[in-house]
Amino acid sequence: MIKVNNLQINKKSFQLGPIDLELEDGYVYAITGNSGSGKTLFLQTLLGAMPSETNAIIYNSLNFQQNAVEIKKLYSYVADKPLFSDTLQVNEVLYKISKLDERFNIDKCFEFLNKQKIVLHSKIYELSQGEKKILLFAVGYFTKSSILVLDNPFSGVGLIAKKEILNLLRDYMDENKMIILVTEDPLVIKSLADYVIVLENGRIDTKEDIVELQERFNTTDIENILLSIMKGENSND
Question: Per the database record, which ranges form the ABC transporter domain (predicted)?
Answer without folding.
Answer: 1-226
